[in-house]
What we know:
The chain is of the alpha+beta class. The chain has helices at 44-57, 76-96, 121-127, and strands at 7-12, 19-24, 29-32, 64-69, 104-110, 129-133. Helix content is 31%, strand content 25%.
Amino acid sequence: MLKNLLAVVLVAAAPVLQAQVRVIESSPQSIRSGVAQSDLPASAESRAVLLAHADKLKGASVAVRLEGHADERGSREYNMALGEKRANAVRDFLVTQGVNGSSLEVVSFGEEQPAATGSDEASWSQNRRVEVKY
């Protein structure tokens, strides 16, 4: 069963790989990132949202799955690796904030489970994400 916490969307700002954050009401939680980007954005707003996730998970005895995704561009192997890097970036951040790493599972789906089916930037930006499932 999924718990409704914050749903976070990190949206790529074209054409650069910087990102901005907006909080939406949705479940599961989703963190989006830029093209070929696996690092977390350094903005104060995105950091605050990720810190909120960490605070919810500190000391909690709940298993969390971090699912990395990519858009359709690139090879299947590349997108699987990129999805894993994205999920690991979120995992590493949460662990540095005191979340028990053994409660975090990292999975990559690459381009296999798109959130949007179009072949345009609007769709691709929705597909570059990490979903946090409680």
